[in-house]
Design a protein that fits this description.
Layout (H helix, E strand, L loop, with lengths): L10 H18 L8 E10 L6 E9 L5 E8 L2 E12 L6 E6 L3 E3 L4 E4 L5 E7 L8 E8 L3 E10 L1 H13 L5
Parallel strand pairs: 1-10
Antiparallel strand pairs: 1-2, 2-7, 2-8, 3-6, 3-9, 4-5, 4-8, 9-10
């Protein structure tokens, strides 16, 4: 029990002071970015006549802890895997091949792009035809952050370079 002359503050007063200080600091300037993984600029390309489609995106880790992308799902497909392109051999004998990978590291405070020529999602077993301009649900699962649900815009392969380049030039894309 709090008594007159006791230098300890009762818990209610401490809670009010803590809340007031938090409110004041929030009003003092722009709030910091949320501590989370953000997935943006998500495109699904291909998938014509039963062929596989490719999933591209920007993954922005707004946390102070490294994370790992471990799985993908796409609502209109049986399967979505992480792939990367690897160069085998040298010179004229070199071959570039897509290879599945179990995971993709996402550094603390870093940005990783799933893009042509690097990490990307390989989407197979489409349940229905997709056409440029359609949107489909996709889920990115991270080892620490859990799942992030997004909408992917279906695009033509020929438009990807422009779309991805435009996204990297926007102010909100690092």
């Amino acid at each position: 029990m709090h008594q007159l002359g006791d230098s300890r503050r009762p818990p209610v007063v401490a809670g009010i002071l803590f809340a007031a200080l938090g409110f004041a600091s929030a009003c003092a300037g722009s709030p910091p970015r949320a501590e989370r993984i953000e997935v943006s600029h998500v495109y699904l390309a291909g998938g014509i006549a039963g062929a596989p489609a490719a999933l591209y995106a920007t993954v922005d880790n707004h946390t102070g802890t490294a994370d790992t992308l471990v799985a993908l799902t796409v609502s209109v497909a049986d399967r979505a895997e992480l792939h990367t392109q690897m160069r085998h051999g040298e010179g004229m004998n070199a071959m570039v091949m897509m290879e599945p990978v179990a995971a993709m590291p996402v550094p603390a405070g870093g940005v990783v792009r799933l893009a042509p020529g690097g990490f990307h999602g390989m989407v197979t077993g489409l349940h229905r035809p997709i056409a440029p301009g359609d949107t489909v649900d996709a889920t990115f699962r991270f080892s620490r952050a859990g799942t992030v649900a997004v909408r992917a815009v279906v695009a033509r392969y020929g438009d990807l370079e422009r779309l991805l380049d435009d996204d990297t030039k926007r102010d909100d894309v690092p």
